[in-house]
Amino acid sequence: MTEKKLASLGKxxxxxxxxxxxxxxxxxxxVSDIVQARARKFFSKKTLHQRLPITQxxxxxxxxxxxGDMVAGxxxxxxxxxxxxxYALVAGLTPNYGLYSAFMGCFVYMFxxxxxxxxxxxxxxxxxxxxxxxxxKNPDYAILLCFLSGIIIFAAxxxxxxxxITFISKPVIAGFTSAAAISIASSQLKGLFGLSYQSESVIExxxxxxxxxxxxxxxxxxxxxxxxxxxxxxRKLKDLKITKVQPDDSTYVRIGRKMLFLISVxxxxxxxxxxxxxxxxxxxxxxxxxxxxxxxxxAFKAPPFSTWDNGTEIYFSEMVSNVGAGIIIxxxxxxxxxxxxxxxFAGGKTIDATQExxxxxxxxxxxxxxxxxxxTGSFSRTAVNSTSGVKTPAGGIVTGLLVxxxxxxxxxxxxxxxxxxxxxVIICAVIFxxxxxxxxxxxxxxxxxxxxxxxxxxxxxxxxxxxxxxVGVGINLAILLYGVARPKVNVSTVLxxxxxxxxxxxxxxxxxxxxxxVDHIRGQVTKAGVGPAESSVMVVVDxxxxxxxxxxATKGMKSLCQDFExxxxxxxxxxxxxxxxxxxxxxxxxxxxxxxxxxxxxxxxICQHLQLLNRYAVSSKHS
Length: 623
Prior knowledge:
It comes from Scylla paramamosain (Mud crab). Residues 66-450 form the SLC26A/SulP transporter domain. It is elongated, with a radius of gyration of 33 Å. The protein has helices at residues 2-7, 14-17, 31-42, 45-51, 54-57, 63-90, 95-100, 104-112, 124-133, 139-158, 170-187, 189-193, 202-211, 218-237, 251-265, 267-281, 316-323, 326-344, 353-368, 379-387, 395-414, 419-430, 439-445, 450-462, 465-485, 518-530, 551-566, 578-587, 597-622; strands at residues 120-121, 307-309, 312-314, 376-377, 489-495, 502-509, 539-542, 571-574, 593-594. A hairpin with a 2-residue loop joins strand 2 and strand 3 (312-314). The chain is 61% helix and 6% strand.
């Protein structure tokens, strides 16, 4: 009977708290009502502004916005043209595909983009990933990848799967970006030295470089190194005080400062133009040139769902099979880059990740119709766009039109661009992507985060980029799951009021009670019961950190209660939430739940009484 009294402590205040009941009078709505409510929400003004952001800023557009967008659009256009040509070479394609990729995203993002600073187009990382999965450098694979990436990104937005990006931590992103930058830079060394060889990894790139170092063309190397020096100096120019417009400057001084600023941010175009003029004036074999580029605008047509390989037609299913993991990896990296850039330039505002995914998906889908390779947000061009004073996403129209004009009228002259200069442009763009400055803050914040950082970096650098991300995410999940399966458990002894001995042993698990952690928590409670509690003192389990409980955990707690019952040692649960209580009581009949310190004291007194009864029973048995 005494045991029953102890077991009933958990139900002592049931009358005070009241029983949980279901509301039988809740109003039920028909299917038609639900459909109508959803339709009203979908076709509401709020949804229109949310899913078509141009409707928010276009009615407020003015001359000041036009001026800012014109200047920023022209500046970004002068940046993206040489970068697009260079990134096409990184992707293993002819230069025209880089330009095909540089304008459609600008147009689409103006309507669907929610961040005024972002520019969509070819990037270094997307180019090297395209090179990874474009079979035999066939542009049809790159275009199909662009289309499928857009479909997957758009579908992910529809399904609200943007939260999956949160499983890729900042250390993993830093490791991936840094390794990709080094890989891209190493792949451009052959162009810088005027060499011709194929390499698939960083080690192979340096190995082939040293093998062929004797064939270096000094003209290309000299031009390439000079281009790097000039690009770095011009990059620094925009940070000097002389380019900052002051309130008391005269009109001519303001124009002069802005011109210096434009020279700095348009450095890629300036260096490429000057190098092209030098190559045009020199003998035809002085420098290694880009060569003929297909002139004119791309035809607007459906992406290729089949291709030809040595006279054999490759159908869609086989193309998808050949691309392999690229169908998942490239959209993932594309979303990751774009969302990260949008967050960096949000200015403290909340980013609508779903809308950014809608915009990015459509940029890739429509881009595939103009023979684009996979695109995403560009950090370097977004920074240029922001510092140039862009006011709205309409700056993308100017950038896109500039690329279109270049394709229409300037492609015959692009063949004079030296490859060494393009290599210099790429190297100067990616060396600042190596995030060496994050190593120390990560170490200070949490030393354990160095493992996914270096695991991702080394795997990307010496194996493959896509495997590096998987390794990094795997390490992060392993660390996360280990913390779930092995939570910290604090054990302390609460003394009696007169401090004459232990009142009870308090066990406080620091995280939730679910199946991965139940064995560990059970072991720690048992250890506390046998050790500090000496198999006789009452043990109190503080459940304030338990947000829920599952079947496996409930079974584990039932076994724990049975272990304590066999030792005739009291076990009490306190600070139990209603959900956890329902789970525990569903399988454990005689569980003791104390809702207050008074009930813990009451349980302690009953325990003392039980111990006296047990001692009396043992002494009677021996006598």
